[in-house]
Amino acid sequence: MQVTVIAATQSPMDVIGIAAGMCYGKPTPSPERVRRCAENGHMSVFEHATATLQIEDISRACLAQLTRHRIASYSVTSHRYCEVGGGDWCVIPPSVVGTDAESRFRAQASDAMWSYQAAIDEGAKFEDARYLLPEATKTSLVMTINARSLQNLLTLRLDSHAQWEIRSLAAEVEWVLMDYSKQWYTLMELLQEVRNGNC
Questions:
Q1: Same domain, yes or no: 9 and 67
Q2: What is the domain extent for residue 112?
Q3: Which residues of the chain, if any, have pLDDT below 70?
Q4: Is 157 a catalytic residue?
């Protein structure tokens, strides 16, 4: 899987600070104001900072979990219009690697790909042949999400009870945004503190 920031609010801490200040007639940047908003649960102002991410090579199963976060926008590679294929077309769960289950998993995936390709070769449309593909089939997408919804996603999906792939995706999203700019680093660090109860 790979996550890349395509675009993001240039100065998210400033934008959130200005938005929060507007409520009190003080529309100026203020990191302290942003922190106070986070501490007091005044998260609506965090909706003014957004990030657009390109997410590649996650399974359809992971996509189904990701899109449960409804306050975000998604544009996903369509297996209705795009042919699936190549040597690395499905996600293999780490829990099966190196076990007897891995060979069964690979055999089943190989059978599914053979059936999919045969259906296309026999004239089936991509949109119909895709019914033969497993949930492990890789897909890619672009997601735009605001910082408030991002906080919700990270809270739920970084939890140890979350499934491994969505947890890996959430960790990667957090990391690339922290690495994006100094203000995004500060914002993501603040959101971590909120999640950990240290704020």
A1: yes
A2: 94-132
A3: none
A4: yes
